[in-house]
Amino acid sequence: MYVVIVDFVAKPEHVESFRTEMVRNARASLADEPGCRQFDVSVAADDPAKIFLYELYDDRAAFDAHLKTTHYREFDAKTAPWVAAKAARHFLRVCP
């Protein structure tokens, strides 16, 4: 399985809008992408501007397909100006 972890910091004036759009993107990924197995959206307990994603795909090809979907491209274009910082990490799941 292919794991993607992304840390975002939303600009203060866009926190709620960014979170709304992120949840919409996550739900569309799970509903419409057969290779997307998990897409968790979490918020730091001490700072609502810090958003953490945990995404699980069948393989790298499924993640690459995710990046080409209309819902992702629209999400990315709409929210890019709302983001103060973004860092992505990629892993291969070992267990379970």
Quick summary:
The chain is α+β, with helices and mostly antiparallel strands and 96 residues long. Helix content is 39%, strand content 41%. Strand 2 (36-44) and strand 3 form a beta hairpin.
How would you explain this protein's 3D organization?
This protein has 96 residues and is of the alpha+beta class. The chain has a single domain, classed as Alpha-Beta Plaits (2-Layer Sandwich). 39% of the residues lie in helices and 41% in strands. A hairpin with a 2-residue loop joins strand 2 and strand 3. Helix 1 packs antiparallel against helix 3. The radius of gyration is 13 Å and the shape is globular. The relative contact order is 0.32. The mean pLDDT is 98.
